[in-house]
What we know:
- The complex is a heterodimer of chains A (125) and B (163).
- Chain A has four helices and three strands; from the N terminus they run βαββααα.
- Chain A has two domains: 2-59, CATH 3.30.70; 68-123, no CATH class.
- In chain A, helix 1 packs antiparallel against helix 2.
- With 125 residues, chain A is α+β, with helices and mostly antiparallel strands.
- The relative contact order of chain A is 0.13.
- Chain B is mainly β.
- Chain B has a single domain (38-162), classed as Jelly Rolls (Sandwich), CATH 2.60.120.1340.
- Chain B contains one helix and twelve strands.
- In chain B, the strands form three sheets. In chain B, strands 3, 6, 7, 8 and 10 form a five-stranded antiparallel sheet that branches.
- The interface between A and B is medium-sized, with 16 and 20 residues.
Amino acid sequence: MKNLTLELKAANVLSLDYDLRAALGSRFYGLTYDGSHVTLVLDDTITPDQVRQAQTLVATHDPARLTPDQQTTVLDAAKLDQARKDYAAAELDLSPYQGKDSALEKLAQKVLWLEREINALRKGS
Amino acid sequence: MTAIWTQPRTWNVGELTTAALMNQHLRDNLDWLKSPPLGSYTAPTSLAITSTSLVDILAPITLSSSGGAFLVGFQACISTSTSAVNVVFDLHVDGVSQGGGLGIAYFTGTGSSTNFNPSFVFYVSPKAAGSHTFKLRAAVSSGSATIYATSAGYNAQFWVREI
């Protein structure tokens, strides 16, 4: 195992790790980043071409670029944020369901109960 | 002045206790017990780790010992990128792993929104008197772990003390 330390002003650690793993495969074990330098942990069998490839990836790294997982996380958070705006302003009003289909009324009661449980959990009670 | 440890003398009946002997066996040994070889390092900047193979972290500590054992400690605040990221810490003494592949301490993170304390104290058996280098190493199972340091308002401290 060998280490390669390079200067790097800003990093999206997971994104840089993702790109290096995609490029170097099993010859890249991961990295450490301390805010100014990144240290790549490389297999002893790494070739000079792959070292140059790693150096280029670090030099051209864009911290704003997200990994697919990070993109999914951002999208999920946006969806949840929107759903909270759309539905979480007030508890479910049971009155429109009363006297209707009994199964639907029961379902609405269950939804209201779950809503209250979730709110309690979010408040830490 | 660096304190010097000397194996305590076994006194004989009728033996003259000279100033030199008292200074060496009483004063110097008490000085050593009060201030044994000690090294510490506080990380100035936070450190992110994605390596799935154990890699050196923080700075190594080298001290000159008197042949005793050591206590090694690590104190920090840490978080992981997602839940169920395992973080392994190992210690190298003079290049020799103290915990093997499983390390000497093992923690599981619960995601970026939860910080936790991965601190530990580890006993290292006596080593021959002389210079010894201690290196802290870490790896993650996937994703990343971040050790927060002074730059983020936290303390990440690695220390070694001969006992």
